[in-house]
């Protein structure tokens, strides 16, 4: 359902910018990307249904794992003292191995439960058609947690996070803010893909009574000629026939935040780029 909402919002923006499409290549890239999003939307609807039923078997497996912990404790207290020193040494190795593996299983199950909760949380909020009071700190944390499923973000990218305590909530549609933030982070991660030691910085702060979400990376930076047209639809430096890009991500982010008085600014030089999302 999250992907379905995303596809719907993307189509709304695309229809609003139809007059700005001025050549066949733009339309081709646009339709290729929309095909991908609608395909993902169909898969997303099925996946969301599965996720809603995922927690019950996870709970059952976790209960069996906790039962194993108790059984291992009983074994250590009642069975081990009756063993000879020679047998006890062999038993201890096997016992330690089983306890270690069961602990690893519990950690993986806990991670799966967190992911299930996250997907259900995002699905609920992004499909909600009503206006909400949104905690931007919490939104950013939840979005970054979702990126933990991506190998590059989880293992390669050095992350620096700083939150402004008690950031005032903002009223609006959750998906407008979550999608805008994701578009900016996606852009930063793509820039970092060619960096030996990728680093991503996320900050929230309050500046002159405006809420600020700052996204910084140590990628190669933006060329001046690109920086001037960065928020123009159908401008992209990425994409290939296998992964078509319509060049709408940053334009959409700006367009989604505009009704709230939101502004996105960019500062870039070789080795350092900052996107600042500013909201009243």
TrEMBL record:
User: What Gene3D superfamilies does the annotation carry?
Assistant: 1.10.287.130, Histidine kinase-like ATPase, C-terminal domain (3.30.565.10)
Location of the Histidine kinase domain:
49-280
Instruction: Quote the catalytic activity from the record.
Output: ATP + protein L-histidine = ADP + protein N-phospho-L-histidine
Asked if Kinase is a keyword of the record, the answer is yes
The record's GO molecular-function terms, alphabetically, read: ATP binding; protein histidine kinase activity
**What organism does the UniProt record list as the source?**
Desulfobacca acetoxidans (strain ATCC 700848 / DSM 11109 / ASRB2)
Query: Which biological process annotations from GO are given for this protein?
Result: phosphorelay signal transduction system
Question: Which UniProt keywords are present, listed alphabetically?
Answer: ATP-binding, Kinase, Nucleotide-binding, Phosphoprotein, Transferase, Two-component regulatory system
Q: List the InterPro entries hit by this protein, alphabetically.
A: HATPase_C_sf, HATPase_dom, His_kinase_dom, Sig_transdc_His_kin-like_C
Q: Which PANTHER family does the UniProt record give?
A: PEROXIDE STRESS-ACTIVATED HISTIDINE KINASE MAK3, SENSOR HISTIDINE KINASE
Query: What is the name of the protein in this document?
Result: histidine kinase
EC annotation? Answer: 2.7.13.3
């Amino acid at each position: 359902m999250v992907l379905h909402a995303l596809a719907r919002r993307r189509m709304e923006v695309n229809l609003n910018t139809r007059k700005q499409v001025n050549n066949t290549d733009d339309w081709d890239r646009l339709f290729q990307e929309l095909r991908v999003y609608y395909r993902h939307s169909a898969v997303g609807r099925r996946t969301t249904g599965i996720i809603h039923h995922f927690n019950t078997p996870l709970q059952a497996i976790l209960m069996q794992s906790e039962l194993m912990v108790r059984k291992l404790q009983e074994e250590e207290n009642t069975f081990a003292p009756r063993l000879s020193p020679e047998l006890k040494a062999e038993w201890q190795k096997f016992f330690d191995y089983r306890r270690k593996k069961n602990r690893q299983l519990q950690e993986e199950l806990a991670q799966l439960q967190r992911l299930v909760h996250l997907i259900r949380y995002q699905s609920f909020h992004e499909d909600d058609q009503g206006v909400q009071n949104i905690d931007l700190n919490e939104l950013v944390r939840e979005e970054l947690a979702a990126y933990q499923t991506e190998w590059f973000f989880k293992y390669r990218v050095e992350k620096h996070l700083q939150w402004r305590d008690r950031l005032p909530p903002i009223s609006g549609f959750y998906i407008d803010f979550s999608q805008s933030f994701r578009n900016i982070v996606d852009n930063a991660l793509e820039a970092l893909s060619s960096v030996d030691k990728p680093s991503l910085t996320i900050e929230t702060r309050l500046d002159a009574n405006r809420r600020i979400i700052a996204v910084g990376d140590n990628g190669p930076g933006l060329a001046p000629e690109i920086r001037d047209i960065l928020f123009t639809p159908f401008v992209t430096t990425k994409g290939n026939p296998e992964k078509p890009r319509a060049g709408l991500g940053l334009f959409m982010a700006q367009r989604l935040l505009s009704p709230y008085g939101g502004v996105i600014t960019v500062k870039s030089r070789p080795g350092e780029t900052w996107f600042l999302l500013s909201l009243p």
